[in-house]
Amino acid sequence: MQTLPHCETLLLVKQGPALHITINRPDSRNAMSLQMVAELATVFAEVESDTSIRAVVIRGSGGHFCAGGDIKDMAGARNQKAGEGEADPFYRLNRAFGQMIQQVNESSKIVIAITEGAVMGGGFGLACVSDVAIAGPTARFGVPETSLGIIPAQIAPFVVERIGLTQARRLALLGLRIGAEEACALGIVHQAATSDEELNDMLTQTLERVRQCAPNATAETKALLHRVGHESMNGLLDSAAEKFAEAVQGNEGNEGTMAFMQKRTPAWADTE
């Protein structure tokens, strides 16, 4: 990514091998507008081909991660009428978000979510498709759609994948809101910080671990993990063995082996 794309709802800063995305709609607690969905999709599409970026950090401005869907967009969709042969406006609105969150889920980069304040609806979904999620002391998580008379249509499958069906049922069917400690116990987030300083320290430590791991091996491992449960085990293990053989004989495998024998850090860990 030679030049960071222009965004109106996101702040983008590249620091070393990490791209930091700050959702920047603080007046609406970073509610997810159609424009934000489109900009996130664009950024993640461009990140895929940028080998200098190994991690993407997502957080929100103004003390909140993301309060869910933008009510203004929903009101706008209500005033639209689908033309002949066109999909319903609410379908298009909802499906656009689903395509974006699937794109984030399947990104080859390590996605890190720093969650604070409101982590609701679509924001909850974003946390559930991150590879690493860290909660700040103010974080409140929820799937409130049923309490609003709607359904968590696009995030529900990712919530089930994240925490299992039984806990997803409880949260979604009751429209519950929970704190960082319970979110950590359920596996929505991996760590819960007790202060802003600790939150930033946890992020720094996570990014240092990203630096220590080979980028191509990391991407291949993530892709392999996503295949579990969707393919026959025998076929998956055959394919995994082929990928392993390629990795061992590839540049990263050779460098990692030599670095271990020479008791030095591998080249990818020295990349700034």
From TrEMBL:
The keyword Isomerase applies. This is Enoyl-CoA hydratase/isomerase family protein. GO terms for biological process: isoprenoid catabolic process. It comes from the Bacteria. GO terms for molecular function: isomerase activity. Signal peptide: none annotated. It comes from Marinobacter adhaerens. The keyword Nucleus does not apply. PANTHER family: ENOYL-COA HYDRATASE (PTHR42964), POLYKETIDE BIOSYNTHESIS ENOYL-COA HYDRATASE PKSH-RELATED (PTHR42964:SF1). Belongs to the enoyl-CoA hydratase/isomerase family. The lineage of its organism: Bacteria, Pseudomonadati, Pseudomonadota, Gammaproteobacteria, Pseudomonadales. Keywords: Isomerase.
